[in-house]
User: Fold this.
Amino acid sequence: MFDLTGKNALITGASGGIGGAIAKALHAQGATVGLSGTRLEPLQALAAELGERAFVLPCNLGDAEAVEALPKQAAEAMGSVDILVNNAGITRDNIFMRMKDEEWADVLEVNLTATMRLCRGVLRGMMKARWGRIVNIGSIVGSTGNPGQVNYAAAKAGVIGLSKSLAYEVASRGITVNTVSPGFIETAMTDKLTDDQKAAILGQVPAGRMGAAEEIGAAVLYLSSPEAAYVTGSTLHVNGGMAML
Amino acid sequence: MSDIADRVKKIVVEHLGVEEAKVVEGASFIDDLGADSLDTVELVMAFEEEFGIEIPDDAAETIQTFGDAVGFISKAS
Assistant:
């Protein structure tokens, strides 16, 4: 089950906690992985840890030209891109009445526009191969909203709409497009929360704990696998029951 | 019939699964040959590969019929 031998996967944000766990999960099932991110050092460390079948592909997703070039670089390095995981994301939180245009634009650019560009960049190869898996990482806040995150929630909701529409267009070509929406996961992003904030959040999580990055990796692995061929346009919520959607 | 037209016809017949006799000069991929919009994208991709040319998006949009395709490729290659 879930054998990815011979498949090549491009993962953005692989220098982060969730991205790294996704890369490890796909790699463990035999995939070759292209690790993309802005910070070279953690990418190289991860590639060294994984050993063979790992390529480092640095890219700043805020730079449109670099984003356009990334799918080609990945295909040159690995031979093709069969699986794309759009995981990279940034936050620029602020209450809406104080939100600056740049805070809005930066978050939309990286979280939504770069996702669109990368999907467009890999589709040609997937169409020819009559096989492809795109997994976009959303967020629970794209479905529920969150104060202080109007920009982030809008971008993540946008990712879900993008995924569903694209799923329609390419379903007949053996390509699936799905979203994994994490709830509260232990990462550098959530480490910044105070203990009081964490306790308040956990009060809303029926599972009574934060999720582990590996639990997102497992969800992405499933949607990337040959076994998930009939699942497309869906959103898989991995949130400990925080929102049952 | 030119070599280019033969090669284009072969791609169209194979990709759309239509009879060769239907692939005539004015045959529209979508209206006459049953292509959907994604098929037309794939046809252009196949033409690019077969003839080693690049067909930009704005040019691709003007290729509506078999004759359009042969005409464009003849000029480009």
